[in-house]
Amino acid sequence: MIVPLSHENLRGRRWPWVTITIIALCSVIFLFTNGRMDRELAQTGTIRLRILILSARFPDAPMTPDAKEMVQAFRLQHENIYQEMATPSTPELAAEWDSFLPTKDLVPQDANAEMGRLCAQLTQSQSGSIAWDYAFHPVHAFLWTYITATFLHGGWMHLIFNMWFFWLAGTILEDLWGRAIYPIFYLLGGALAWAVHGIVFPHSLLPALGASGAIAGLMGAFLARFPKTRIRLGWVIWVRIVKFYVPAYIILPLWLALQIVPGIFSRAIGMDSGIAYWAHIGGFAFGALGAVLLRATGVEQSADRAIESKVSWTADPLIVRATDCLAENNVEGAISALRQQVKEKPDSIDGWDLLLKAQHRKQYMEGQKESLAALCRLHVASGEFATAASEYEWYKNVGGTKLPRGVWLELCRYLEREQRWQLAADEYEKLAEANPTERAGVSALVAAGRICATRLNEPARAEQLLSAAAASPVPHSDLDAVIQENLKLSAAATPQPGAYTR
User: Fold this and answer.
1) Which of 124, 247, 351, 359 could lock 364 by a disulfide, CB 3.0 to 4.6 Å apart?
2) Residue 131 and residue 125 in contact, taking contact as beta carbons nearer than 8 Å
3) Strand order in the sheet with 230-237
4) Cα–Cα distance between 133 and 143 in angstroms, integer?
5) Which of 2, 100, 97 is nearest to 57 (CA)?
């Protein structure tokens, strides 16, 4: 299983209170509704099945409008199953018949009375039902359910995964659009997603609920506005998690494809699968188009300037000037202002971060290397190692080869703590090669050799690295014991000439 863990732009200019509020609201609603909804759905499902079985055998039995609408919708989707219900042959249908009508020798008058009883039960079960009143039912959709269905969830995993995707996609868009446009966009995306689902499956009896349609809208907007942002994914393999980065322009279209394929299949067979694929597709399309329109019409830029006027760090006039330049597409002016800002305040993460974005827009490789090296240093100093590691990968992609040894060493140790053994060994070795006359270089050789000997099963490489550390002219007597211990491990793991192996 592959799950998203983070992305490069999680850190915004202020707290994403709208996103936090929606997550809290969905969680509280779930706690108060989940158990009751399960009971209501089970009860209503049983009554509906009995009405279907009885109406199939006695089609003239009078029904209430809700029951008649339900039967007609079921027949349009499952005509063959409905015909079979008239003379139940499968054990399941026969057992259901026997559970409420022990005798099959009914006369129409008895059937009418039983249908009246079942219709009354259906009306009662739907009266005040959360699933009926607030989930989205394509066959009978109340206007408010286009909004309320987005705040209901059908299980813990449904809630957790939806809210995690919402956090990853939503925080950056709240930071971009502000606390007025963003929630309106979210709710509109959810409503349109349910509308698309209802158009594709107008006769579905399954209650649709969850925030995934609205979140798909945010994912579409994310793709339209931040296509090159790298998303950190985790591949769960047994008890290990392999972490890697994929740009948004690859992973988000792939996710959309995984919705389109089963969506087309479910539409082809005319059956709602229980997963609202078309709500996801409709929400994603709305989000991508809506984000483009917000930018093209200038609404996004106006919102961004309003946010800039409120956040605390905009007191720095050079960042304010650079932000205005970027809004006017004057990238050179922004870079000039930001270079002056980081010269005056070399520890300004906001300054370096904005400078990097401006340099990225102009594809200034050398400038990006300088900014990324500075950001690595600052994020390591503040303990944000995951962010620093992401920036270091970017640094290497634009041609960077050497970081300050202290920063580099801390990143290597972080990779080792994360059990990214191969990458940690490679980086330790590069650090040693770049600092052959420094104590840090010897320590890096020993660390790389130890990983190769104990984690990677590369005894030959381990021996080479440890021998180089032992031969270094840099004083390292305190490391001799570790070097010798790992050399012995490497020798024991190295096949001897003529030895039998398998």
Assistant:
1) 359
2) no
3) 2-7, 230-237, 240-247
4) 10
5) 97
pTM metric for this prediction: 0.62
Q: Render pLDDT for 405-458 as a digit per residue (tens, 0 to 9).
A: 999 999 999 999 999 999 999 999 999 999 999 999 999 999 999 999 999 989
What six digits make up the tokens of 310?
């409120």
First-last CA distance in the chain: 33
So what's the pLDDT on residue 326? 83
How big is the chain, counted in residues? 502
What are the start-end ranges of the H helices in 208-348? 212-225, 248-268, 277-296, 299-308, 317-327, 331-344
Using alpha carbons, select from 359, 349, 365, 223 the residue that is nearest to residue 284. 223
Which of 76-85, 160-169, 277-286 has the lowest average pLDDT? Answer: 76-85
CB atoms within 10 A of CB 105: 6
The whole-number average pLDDT for the span 76-98 is 72
Task: Please name each of the domains of the chain with its CATH number.
Answer: 2-15+150-296 (1.20.1540), 33-136 (no CATH), 402-502 (1.25.40.10)
Contact 364, 390 (CB under 8 A): no
Measured distance CA(176)–CA(493) in Å, rounded: 55
Which residues lie below 8 Å from residue 291, measured CB to CB, with a gap of 6+? 220, 221, 224, 225
Residue 37, class by beta-carbon neighbours within 10 Å (0-12 exposed, 13-18 middle, 19+ buried)? buried
Q: In Å, how far from its chain's centre is CA 355? A: 28
User: To which residue do tokens 């139940």 refer?
Assistant: 88
**What CA–CA distance (Å, rounded) separates 336 from 362?**
13
